[in-house]
Amino acid sequence: MVSAVKVYINGRLIGFHKEPEQLTKELIQQRRKGKIHPQVNIAFHEDTREVYINSDAGRVQRPVLIIENGKLKIKEEHIKALKEGKTNWNVLLKEGIIEYLDAEEEENTLIATSEEEITKKHTHMEIDSAGILSVVSSLIPYLEHNMAGKSLHGAKMFKQALGIPGINYNLRTDTEGHLLHYPQKAIVKTKTSDLMELDKRPQLQNLVVAIMPYYGFNTLDAVILNQGAVDRGIGRSAYFRTYETAETRYPGGQIDKFEIPKEETIGFLGEEFYKKLGEDGLVELEEFVSEKDVIVGRTSPPRFLEEVSEFGVVQEKRRESSMTVRKGKPGFVDKVFIAEDLEGNKLVKIKIRSLMIPEVGDKFSSKHGQKGVIGSIIPEEDMPFTEEGIKPDLILNPHSIPSRMTIGHLIEMLGGKAASLKGKEIDGTPFSSVSRQEIGKMLEEAGFRADGKETFYDGLSGKKLEGQIFNGIVAYRRLFHMVAHKMQSRSRGPVQILTRQPTEGKEKEGGLRFGEMEGETLVGHGAAMLLQEKLIEDSDKLIEIICEKCGIVAINDQIRNRKYCPICNSSAVYPVEMSYGFKLLLDELKSLGIMPKIMIKDKV
């Protein structure tokens, strides 16, 4: 006897069925006839002997053409009607010519990529081979020649690329924003980029790239930029930062006030800090401001009511509560917006614009996951050059190609070179692109080698370089990871209240965490004094007096000028150096009813 299989709808067991294959087939047929909603998916898993029916939200579905008995259901007349506008997508869906599959149902299908490879076993065919990919992935030209992981990496970095965030960027007040100054459209493009109209909001620049080492400056993932190209505007961008503040109302009718604080104000910073403010207490347009400069002068009422003066009049002394520019983010005042918030208070937004010119440490990436930071910016006259005098904008390390297997990057370079010589765009759509052989022919017609290699000369010595250097044009993106926003240093600064250890994070002027693992490396090296310095001296050093007899922290009574043990009243107490974190541990143990003791003895 055949045992019944479980049937699930959206993960809930709703019953059993003895003929799961027949049930699945019947339900799919009903869906193709339009009796079941097209977004419902039905799948029978033979290994677990369970039928899954899914109609819930959040499933990723994709459309494919249906094959029945080894033949496509879509015919020439359908394609003709589509072209003439007599039919549309929804009609094809209702007629059961196209259907949506989700990950669950796709497990039981065999999908052909082209009409030529259809056999009796195939159940569906791709509308276009690029349909396998996501929107972002299909923007990568020649993706099928790359290792999958690197293409995914390249796709992730689309979201970090600088470009035109919106045509109304000058009216927006986002907390942070970037604008690439001279974006270009891609020379090697894909069909998806045309459908998305990516040329209307570009986010890349086409660079002349040579793959070669350069005196060790592009070791590992570092890239070399041409100073001349930087001067001409490669990767130049604007960074916008918006600061927001309001005249807050307090209980009792008191209110903050935008003004230039007077000298008698509590916490007055000094006249030089308020120089850039206008009469209304707001910074002037196009004024250059750097860190700690005041951009909104503001005073607040005192936190507590002042004492009555000798004349019986309450003298209100206001507090300084101005807004200053954030650390490491200087720039020009781009816009000043004055409005009202929901409570009717005066609201001010100030937008600061910083010019970000590429510098050593800034990050660039191609579409193929070939990311790298600038290792050096070389003067134009020192760059290697071809017989025609062409100097690369960027030099890429040859070692970054073999291990990552991003052959798509190399073909895009060839395609970009051919396209710029022919003056036309090249289609690099995955699975249906212009072939490498065609690109080779175009290069040969223009008088270049088909493999994209050229003779180069050293810019410093003028000598001909041994061997041929591969070069071409490839789309590069500047990413928003900039060294100016990441630089951090600290000597002395704020500490946390509880542990008295340095604060964490760049914004809080924090230190770099020298953690357990870093400490272990010093232990392994036997660097005892460095261990002491890093974990105690530079962190939370504390000197406590300890009772010689009881081993507990003694009392230092500064009023009576007496040091003694609270338990045995002994005055034989001695200073011991420790970290405040350790002292905190002792206190926490005491709160649990555990009495920790530090046994001390004389140094030998």
Structural summary, described in words:
This protein has 604 residues and is of the alpha+beta class. The protein has 4 domains: 5-127, Alpha-Beta Complex (Hypothetical Protein Ta0175, Chain: A, domain 2), CATH 3.90.1070.20; 152-236 and 360-478, Dna-directed Rna Polymerase Ii 140kd Polypeptide, Chain: B, Domain 6; 238-356, RNA polymerase II, Rpb2 subunit, wall domain (OB fold (Dihydrolipoamide Acetyltransferase, E2P)), CATH 2.40.50.150; 541-591, DCoH-like. It contains 13 helices and 34 strands. A 6-stranded mixed β-barrel has the order 12-26-13-24-23-30. Strands 5, 6, 7, 8 and 9 form a 5-stranded mixed β-sheet that branches. The chain has a 5-stranded antiparallel β-sheet with strand order 10-14-22-21-16, with no helix packed on it. Helix 8 (407-422) packs parallel to helix 9 and helix 11 runs antiparallel to helix 12 (528-537).
